[in-house]
Write a structure and sequence with these properties.
Blueprint lengths: L1 H7 L3 H5 L3 H13 L3 E10 L5 E10 L2 E9 L5 E9 L4 E6 L11 E5 L36 E10 L2 E11 L2 E8 L5 E9 L2 E12 L3 E12 L6 E13 L19 E5 L7 E6 L2 E3 L4 H37 L1
Parallel strand pairs: 6-14
Antiparallel strand pairs: 1-2, 1-13, 2-3, 3-4, 4-5, 5-6, 7-8, 8-9, 9-10, 10-11, 11-12, 12-13, 14-15, 15-16
Length: about 325
């Protein structure tokens, strides 16, 4: 009883007293509990010029989707949507711009390749693990603490005591992580130094209902030395849904809200690429498009005729009623 009494007088952070290795294991376990989600991510770049991007990140199990929206200087909205399914090893890419195939706008269904994630944000499980721009977070190694541990100690960071600092040397690259043991051992700062380049990522955490601590904002700065670093990019992360049921149609062709008439190239068959046209939620052969359009137009005209006939019937009835009263 006496021991417990004296322990209760110690600061909470001392009781936690994890090593860097303990913190790393706890952090990976915490992030692995992130099973599904729907996140909004807003990125503002300040260097070399100001640019703004909006991402929607949706994931559930083996399925992952990213929607990228960018508005250029003229006000034009650029949209690209990408879906991948690790279980089926297939991907879908849709863009409202000229993507490829001789400058034509197309939807592409392909076998999933390692290059799918190149230049696009990856799973939220690794958010805050890497310095660098948000678009490059796809390349973060797991675990991110590579190399030999050369220093480990507890420090006070931004007025918060008990932060676990761990520095790793990996060839010419030195990476320093700052873990907060009281908040799921989340990384609150990471610094990378290599030759004449210094990078820093500062992470602001927030507690999410049903999950726990998670990055809500990151600030990335870089320079030749720590003394001359400048703010390059900020990332705001808004979790709309975490570890809840996600609509499975969001990961399908029909869920991408593709305009009718868009050409679709399916390269997943053994006989090579097959060309379709997306129309009314279906993939149809190009030679069937006219018949499909005629059928749709016929339904529209029939509906219009029914509405007109109904209006005429109401007018005739009203006039007959007025004539009877007069």
């Amino acid at each position: 009883m006496t021991v417990l009494f004296w322990l209760s007088l110690l600061p909470g952070r001392i009781l936690l007293a994890q090593s860097a290795e303990d913190c790393q294991a706890r952090l990976l376990e915490h992030r692995a509990a992130l099973k599904s989600g729907d996140f909004q991510v807003h990125v503002t770049r300040f260097q070399p010029r100001k640019q703004e991007f909006h991402y929607r990140i949706v994931f559930s199990g083996d399925r992952f989707r990213v929607d990228v929206t960018k508005i250029d200087e003229t006000g034009h909205e650029y949209v690209m949507k990408r879906v991948k399914d690790e279980a089926t090893r297939k991907s879908i890419v849709y863009s409202n711009e000229r993507y490829h195939h001789g400058g034509r706008n197309v939807v592409s269904i392909e076998h999933l390749t390692p290059s799918f994630d190149t230049g696009y944000p990856t799973h939220p499980r690794v958010y805050g693990f890497s310095t660098g721009r948000f678009s490059g977070w796809y390349s973060v190694p797991i675990p991110p603490w590579k190399g030999q541990l050369v220093e480990e100690r507890r420090v006070t960071l931004d007025g918060v005591p008990g932060i676990v600092m761990a520095t790793y040397q990996d060839g010419s690259v030195q990476r320093t992580f700052y873990f907060d043991p009281t908040r799921s051992c989340e990384i609150v700062r990471k610094e990378t130094a290599v030759r004449d380049q210094f990078e820093r990522l500062v992470v602001t955490l927030k507690e999410i209902d049903g999950f726990g601590w998670f990055p809500m904002r990151t600030e990335f700065s870089e320079g030749k030395t720590e003394a001359d670093i400048k703010l390059v990019e900020t990332v705001e992360i808004i979790p709309d849904r975490v570890n809840e049921q996600i609509d499975p149609t969001l990961f399908t062709l029909q869920g991408l809200e593709i305009p009718d008439g868009y050409p679709v190239y399916d390269r997943t068959g053994e006989s090579g690429s097959k060309r379709f046209v997306y129309f009314d939620g279906e993939l149809i052969q190009r030679d069937q498009l006219a018949a499909k359009s005629s059928e749709s137009n016929l339904r529209w005209y029939i509906g219009l005729f029914a509405v007109i006939a109904g209006v005429i019937a109401i007018v005739v009835s009203y006039r007959s009623y007025r004539a009877t009263r007069d």
